[in-house]
């Protein structure tokens, strides 16, 4: 098994080996049998009744819907496990999430189940505080084959070291205002970033209507966009070892400049966007102030359906060809977005692991998965859910489904968290300059990226 994962593990290789269908049995005979159960792994029998504890992300956009969903899960769990129940606490920021992870790992005491976003799973894995799922454990909840294949690429560093069970997805696509497209005479959704800029210019009046928006002050949006553009250019934000930052590489510099130029050079986004966060961009689109929003998740659908753009917006796949080019450069990937979603993990020091595994089985049940969609506008991650409920692949959910299948995993390094912060610092610094003066210098951008790359490097040791 050691040689199997030596060197670079490609996304395609991951999916082949992970057991999606019969490919794994052909490509790597005996792979699943090699995933022997560890001495500490929970059994999959009938555990004694107990009350589990969960630590989950707070749905600030749909708090009542989240409470309703958790009540439904609790009722089904109690039905299948008489005498058992669960309680849950929530976190509303990455800082809270990380602090709870650190303190629980250090004390070897904490919730039975932790929920993590896809990019924090590597940090959780690095603590060694979560159970690696064995083949028996996967089979107990339905098997690895029940999930949308890309989601498992962020469940662990390799197919035999998966710690996280996907519970919901957050695919990234582009959304545009159909009425604004028609008014500007735009008949085709942009497939290159050059076409995107041209379309955005056609919809911009420079005062109260803009082609697009950006959220450089957001805690996540900067690295989302810079990762996307850098990946399409054939670059990386960190090397394949996870030990060397590449935030000031030529591809990264070009990616940052292109995004910042939406305000500074192309003037397709308002200068006031320099202070925007993600919610501000959603609001701008919902009120008909912008024509396109890039890397938009399904979370905005509820807002859009209750706004002036209801019935006038459409999700599509976004551009994949870098600005000024007609095709992808060497090494460039046609990324729509990264694998994104929420995951449940089993705390290694839990005294109720068998029961917690039963709860995971409930959460990935297609009927419960459908409620993630119905109540919270989140994409299910279990394939059978899409077969049972056709609306999950209809209307605006059709391109979102396609986007999920085309998503690329971010590097599985615990250093990715600090990288996100450093990218944001550099972008926010230059965006603030643009907000004040309307411009920036390339030398200032390069200097800012070099500085944050040095800070990232120092944190890597």
Task: Provide structural commentary.
The N terminus is likely disordered. The longest helix has 22 residues. The relative contact order is 0.17. This protein has two domains: 207 residues, Periplasmic binding protein-like II (D-Maltodextrin-Binding Protein, domain 2), CATH 3.40.190.10; 213 residues, Periplasmic binding protein-like II (D-Maltodextrin-Binding Protein, domain 2). The strands form two sheets. It has a five-stranded mixed β-sheet with strand order 2-1-3-9-4. Helices cover 43% and strands 11% of the residues. The protein starts with 10 loop residues before the first helix and ends with a helix. With 461 residues, it is α/β, with parallel strands linked by helices. It has 19 helices and nine strands. Helix 4 packs antiparallel against helix 15 and helix 18 packs antiparallel against helix 19. Helix 4 links the parallel strand 1 and strand 2.
């Amino acid at each position: 098994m050691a040689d199997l994962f030596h060197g670079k593990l490609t996304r395609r290789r991951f999916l082949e080996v992970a057991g999606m269908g019969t490919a794994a049995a052909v490509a790597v005979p005996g792979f699943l049998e090699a995933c022997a159960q560890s001495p500490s792994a929970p059994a999959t029998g009938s555990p004694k009744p107990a009350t589990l504890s969960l630590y989950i992300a707070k749905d600030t956009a749909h708090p009542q819907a989240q409470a309703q969903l958790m009540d439904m899960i609790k009722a089904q769990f109690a039905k299948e496990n008489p005498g058992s129940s669960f309680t849950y606490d929530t976190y509303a920021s990455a800082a809270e999430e990380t602090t709870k992870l650190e303190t629980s790992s250090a004390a070897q005491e904490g919730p039975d189940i932790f929920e993590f976003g896809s990019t924090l799973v590597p940090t959780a894995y690095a603590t060694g505080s979560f159970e690696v799922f064995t083949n028996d454990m996967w089979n107990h909840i339905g098997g690895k084959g029940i999930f949308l294949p890309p989601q498992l690429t962020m469940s662990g560093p390799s197919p035999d070291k998966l710690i996280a069970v996907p519970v919901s997805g957050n695919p990234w696509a582009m959304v545009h205002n159909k009425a604004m497209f028609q008014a500007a005479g735009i008949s085709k959704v942009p497939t290159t970033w050059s076409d995107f800029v041209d379309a955005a210019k056609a919809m911009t009046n420079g005062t109260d209507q803009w082609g697009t928006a950006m959220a450089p002050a957001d805690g996540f949006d900067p690295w989302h966009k810079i990762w996307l553009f850098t990946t399409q250019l054939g670059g990386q934000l960190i090397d394949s070892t996870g030990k060397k930052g590449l935030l000031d590489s030529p591809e990264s510099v070009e990616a940052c400049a292109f995004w910042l130029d939406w305000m500074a050079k192309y003037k397709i986004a308002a200068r006031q966007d320099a202070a925007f966060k993600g919610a501000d961009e959603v609001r701008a689109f919902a009120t008909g102030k912008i024509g396109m929003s890039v890397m938009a998740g399904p979370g905005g659908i509820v807002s859009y359906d209750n706004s002036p753009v209801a019935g006038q917006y459409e999700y599509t796949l976004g551009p994949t060809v870098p600005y000024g080019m007609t095709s992808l450069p060497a090494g460039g990937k046609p990324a729509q977005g990264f694998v994104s979603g929420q995951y449940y993990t089993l705390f290694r020091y839990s005294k109720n692991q068998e029961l917690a595994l039963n709860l995971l089985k409930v959460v990935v049940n297609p009927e419960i998965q459908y409620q993630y969609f119905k109540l919270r506008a989140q994409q299910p991650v279990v394939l059978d859910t899409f077969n049972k409920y056709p609306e999950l692949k209809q209307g605006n959910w059709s391109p979102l489904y396609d986007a999920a299948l085309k998503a690329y995993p971010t590097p599985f390094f615990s250093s990715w968290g600090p990288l996100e912060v450093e990218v944001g610092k550099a972008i926010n610094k230059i965006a603030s300059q643009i907000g004040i003066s309307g411009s920036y210098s390339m030398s200032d951008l390069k200097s800012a990226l070099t500085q944050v790359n040095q800070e990232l490097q120092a944190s890597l040791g």
